[in-house]
Design a protein that fits this description.
alpha+beta, 3-stranded antiparallel β-sheet
Length: 182
């Protein structure tokens, strides 16, 4: 009675707080005649978006990770400019979502913004840069190493070798005809 007591806050669900009070080491039963005054500010989830790539090429895969949503909450994604709707995901038990974004080959160059919006938690955005896909005629760079080779040099070498072989055969035939005629 009349003492100062300490309360601890914990949460098993993002955004929800549970207060347990103990007096003299014994838990105060629910519904007991204990008066408690809480001073402090309301805590809220901090929604955040992180991106796999800070700079992405046209036609590549970008991944957006959302954190801090309410578990089970529906989260929608939007890519700007152009208002490209990315669909919806359901936040997992930790309040996380993942959006795999296949960037169009003709996506405009420059700054783009991914915005993830929860039905109740609010929204968060993150920007990234889009640059030209400079591998014209080669397979798309989806973040993997390019392991092919440029065969144009080999093709030229092959044509030269074929021409030399034909020249050698033609030369032998001419020598044979000369020897046969003598």
């Amino acid at each position: 009675s009349g003492g100062v007591y300490t309360a601890s806050l914990s949460s098993s669900v993002a955004g929800l707080k549970h207060v347990s009070v103990s007096v003299g080491g014994a838990a105060v039963p629910a519904g007991g005649n204990t008066v408690a005054e809480f001073v402090g500010e309301k805590t809220t989830n901090k929604i955040d978006v992180t991106l796999l790539l800070s700079t992405a090429r046209q036609g590549n895969l970008q991944v957006a990770y959302g954190h801090g949503f309410r578990p089970g909450e529906q989260v929608s994604g939007l890519l700007e400019p152009g208002s490209v709707y990315l669909g919806t995901q359901i936040a997992d038990a930790q309040g996380d979502v993942v959006f795999n974004i296949q960037l169009p080959d003709n996506l405009s160059l420059g700054t783009h913004t991914v915005t993830l919006t929860g039905t109740g938690s609010g929204s968060a955005s993150r920007q990234f840069q889009v640059v030209a896909n400079d591998k014209a005629g080669k397979p798309k760079d989806n973040g993997l190493a390019y392991t092919g080779i440029d065969v144009s040099g080999l093709l030229g070498l092959g044509l030269v070798l074929i021409a030399m072989a034909l020249w050698a055969v033609a030369g032998r035939r001419m020598l044979r005809r000369e020897n046969d005629s003598h």
